[in-house]
């Protein structure tokens, strides 16, 4: 027995309200917080019901590898927040990216991707897919003409991040979506840096949006998770079976943590974004910095596009020091409040040196082509007071 929820049109609510209420289902106990169903499998009242579940004629649960009540609540909530028909949760963000791509292609197909990607994403496109007979082409994402020129008769998907990891490039999602639509192919956008609150790729024409829920959605460094957000048809035609049979499943506990994270996502992202914006402005004229990268600053290469496409500049700031790796390391080692970590989107401010961490496997030439110098660091701004963050950065820059 379950308690029938009050009649509420989730679609009429603002995103902040959807992030708190969408997808909630209460058991007969009427719990306030979403229930955590830590179960591997399910029992059936009789053999006929069991058979009907496996045939798809009964809507109940079968096995938590591909369906679980807590996970379902997370999927419904993120779909509502994104304004999508459907979503599926995975164990990690990279499981979401890999499944999103693999579900659209087969041997003999072709994928076009922006070249400026998180290191693991680029591995999937550049090295993993070709192992299964799927060719890939990497392009300069800001150049619309190269997307068109890269198309082949067997192209099945476009893929990009915007803003990119770690250099915060912003790509014209609507324009690239139009190219994909005209070619009859699917378009996947990794929206991790912007979060569903600051950018809506599906409304801009993308077909599939992926998230590492590990980042802002959890937002407190606790659990791993990933999300694929799209239409019912794409889920059924491309992802349902592969998720069911291959098992990149999120645990119910992690899904519950992500549900709790979504409840506070809007207040965290708003504060972190405000901090990031102020820090970028304060640091822009610092004599130890060669450049600052922040999408909502007028000196960002795609500033006008960012203002048009995003609702705010986000929680990440790129800092390039004058000098090289030794200067960057001295700066990182002199920080006291901000921690060195390769994660991002956390309540705590974190900083990383991409050329020796997230992108260390690439050649110096490849990193240069991606805009990643030895003196570049990626700052994920947290919830601390902005004065404390600035003092920590300013003092550490003095040491560099």
Shape, principal axes of CA atoms? globular
Q: What is the mean predicted local confidence, pLDDT?
A: 96
Major β-sheet annotation: 7 strands, mixed
Instruction: Tell me the strand percentage band.
Output: 15-25%
The spatial strand order of the largest sheet comes to 3-9-8-7-6-4-5
Helix content: 25-40%
For this structure, the CATH topology of the largest domain is Aspartate Aminotransferase, domain 2
Family: Belongs to the trans-sulfuration enzymes family. MetZ subfamily.
Modified residues (N6-(pyridoxal phosphate)lysine): 215
Keywords: Amino-acid biosynthesis, Methionine biosynthesis, Pyridoxal phosphate, Transferase
GO molecular function, one term: transferase activity, transferring alkyl or aryl (other than methyl) groups
């Amino acid at each position: 027995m379950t308690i029938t929820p009050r009649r509420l049109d989730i679609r009429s609510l603002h995103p902040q309200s959807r992030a708190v209420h969408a997808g909630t289902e209460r058991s007969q106990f009427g719990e306030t917080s979403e229930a955590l169903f830590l179960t591997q499998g399910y029992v059936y009242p009789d053999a006929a019901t069991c058979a009907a579940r496996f045939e798809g004629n009964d809507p109940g649960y079968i096995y938590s590898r591909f369906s679980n009540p807590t996970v379902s609540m997370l999927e419904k909530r993120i779909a509502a927040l994104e304004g999508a028909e459907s979503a599926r949760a995975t164990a990690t963000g990279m499981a979401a990216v890999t499944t999103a791509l693999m579900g659209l292609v087969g041997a003999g197909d072709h994928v076009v991707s922006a070249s400026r990607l998180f290191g693991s994403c680029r591995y999937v496109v550049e090295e993993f897919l070709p192992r299964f007979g799927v060719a890939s082409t990497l392009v300069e994402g800001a150049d619309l003409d190269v997307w068109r020129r890269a198309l082949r008769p067997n192209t099945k998907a476009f893929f990009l991040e915007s803003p990119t990891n770690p250099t915060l490039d912003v790509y014209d999602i609507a324009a690239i979506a139009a190219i994909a639509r005209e070619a009859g192919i699917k378009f996947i956008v990794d929206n991790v840096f912007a979060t569903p609150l600051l950018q809506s790729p599906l409304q801009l024409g993308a077909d599939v949006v992926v998230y590492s829920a590990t980042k802002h959605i959890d937002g407190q460094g606790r659990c791993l998770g990933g999300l694929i957000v799209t239409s019912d048809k794409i889920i059924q035609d491309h992802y349902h079976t592969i998720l069911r049979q291959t098992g990149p499943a999120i645990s119910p506990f992690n899904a519950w943590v992500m549900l709790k994270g979504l409840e506070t996502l809007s207040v965290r992202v708003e504060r972190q974004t405000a901090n990031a914006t102020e820090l970028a402005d304060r640091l822009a004229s610092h004599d130890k910095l060669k450049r600052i990268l922040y999408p909502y600053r007028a000196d960002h290469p795609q500033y006008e596009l960012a203002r048009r496409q995003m609702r705010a500049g986000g929680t990440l700031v790129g800092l390039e020091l004058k000098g090289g790796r030794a200067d960057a390391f001295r700066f990182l080692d002199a920080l006291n409040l901000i921690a060195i970590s390769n994660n991002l989107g956390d309540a705590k401010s974190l900083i990383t040196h991409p050329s020796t961490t997230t992108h260390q496997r690439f050649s110096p030439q490849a990193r240069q082509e991606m805009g990643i110098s030895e003196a570049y660091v990626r700052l994920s701004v947290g919830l601390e007071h902005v004065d404390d963050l600035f003092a920590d950065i300013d003092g550490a820059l003095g040491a560099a």
